[in-house]
Every structure is written in C-alpha cells, then in structure tokens.
Amino acid sequence: MSRHSHREMLPPLLAVRAFEAAARRSSFSLAAEDLHVTQSAVSRQIRLLEEFLGFPLFVRLARGVALTPAGADFYQAADQSLNLLETAARRG
Fold first, then answer.
1. Average pLDDT for residues 47-66, to the nearest whole number?
2. pLDDT score for 5
3. Dist CA 90 CA 52 (whole Å)
4. Are 41 and 48 in contact (CB under 8 A)?
5. Rounded distance, CA 73 to CA 19, Å?
6. CA spacing 20 to 30 A to 92: which of 5, 59, 63, 68?
7. DSSP β-ladder status, 58-60 and 65-67
8. What does the mean pLDDT of the chain come to?
9. Whether pTM exceeds 0.85
C-alpha cells in the first residue's frame, strides 16, 4: 500500500480534535469553548467523524454526552496520538 493511501484512511484531524475535547469535557458545548468554535461546529465534526468511522462515539444525554465503548477505545487512541503530535511539535 502506498503512503498516500494510508493517509486516506486517517480520520480528519479537526474532527479528531473536536472529538477529543468533547470526550474529555463530556460536553459538546464545553469542547466548543475550549476550541473557540460554536457548539454546532463541534457537533458537525463529531457527526463527520462518526460517519467516517462507521460507528457512534457518543450517547447523547439530556445534559452532556457519554462515550460509547467504541468511543472510549477511540478516545484512548486519539488522546495518545494528539499527545505524540504535540510533543513532536514542541521539539521542532
């Protein structure tokens, strides 16, 4: 498989960032505050990511959201990956 085709399999980074913030804060609204975007922008990114992955990441609750089991697994991977990227960016 070529390098390019591997990247086509990666989820959109903005959607992953929105997901990570929403999972960490258990809220699309609080994630939006953290990312300086609207709640609807976070919601759109989460929907995009769920469509890309083919499974739900959250259970929508009256107040906030909770991760599905698949969402919890994806959160661990997303958190580790974003931490690695952040560390690499700091090293320059």
1. 96
2. 61
3. 29
4. no
5. 12
6. 5
7. antiparallel
8. 93
9. yes
pLDDT for the residue 72: 98
Residue at token pair 């258990």: 26
| Closest C-alpha to 34, from 19, 50, 12 | 19
Average of per-residue pLDDT across 13-40 = 97
The span from the CA of 19 to the CA of 49, in Å, is 8
pLDDT for the residue numbered 28: 97
Per-position DSSP letters for 20-88, written without gaps between them: HHHHHHT-HHHHHHHHTS-HHHHHHHHHHHHHHHTS--EEE-SSSEEE-HHHHHHHHHHHHHHHHHHHH
Q: Which helix (H) or strand (E) holds 18?
A: helix 13-25
CA distance 69 to 72: 5
Q: Which two tokens stand for residue 66?
A: 């909770």
Q: What is the dihedral of CA 21, 23, 29, 30, to 10 degrees?
A: -60
